[in-house]
Amino acid sequence: MPVEAESTYHDLLQADDSRDLLAEAQTMLRIILARHPQASSLIEVGCGAGERLRVLGQRISLVEGVVADDATARVARRSSPGTTIHQARLGGLDLGRRYDVVACLYDGLAELPLAGYREVLRNLAELLDTGGLLLLAPFWMPDVAIRRTASDELSRGDDGRTLARVSRGAPRDGAHRLERHVLLAEGDGVRHAADSRTLHAFGRREHLNALAAAGCAADFLPTGLTGRPLLVGVRRPAGRPGTEPSPVPTF
Length: 251
Description:
single chain; alpha/beta; Rossmann fold; S-adenosyl-L-methionine-dependent methyltransferases; seven-stranded mixed β-sheet; 6 helices; 23% helix; SAM-dependent_MTases_sf; Methyltransferase domain-containing protein
């Protein structure tokens, strides 16, 4: 029996025990305070259950999140009471205001081909005030693609529900094909769900050029987010001509 995305099991399905979200939020704060110490507003696009927002909100006066579906929105609002959680998709995102920091760290960006990725970055940059920071975490880079045939994770809920996840990934035609199966054990039996997706790989040059086209100067930090790559863009004044980033090796 499939596990429905709208079900009460959504929080367990979305759990990723391989990432330390608290450490990620603390790293984000250090970068923000070092590069934009006056930042007072932040929005995280693709904030999941909102774990990072709770930490970021301790130092930044206004924090908000964006999720795409009803189930994730319910979890995020329950997890971060008092925090505004918008429900919207990436394309044409318009929230009626600008922010000092826009973060997008979730894996969905990797599902976009290069043209779509560049368009989304332009949209995210438009949410920034001049001088604001855009924080992006590429899912993976071409030089570190791995063939995962036995990647497994186990999540347990406080109510005794247990979810086991097995993933298999392989590089294919310049992208990464990922298959995932999950088993959810709870009081009335065991449920199964499966999905697959293609994740695109862009090298450092493609990422930096996409940010430049979006009106941002940018740095690439190979291990900037708790060992994962991180891109830090800075929104240039409107109308100011962009400069291409310095040539870097193509992966």
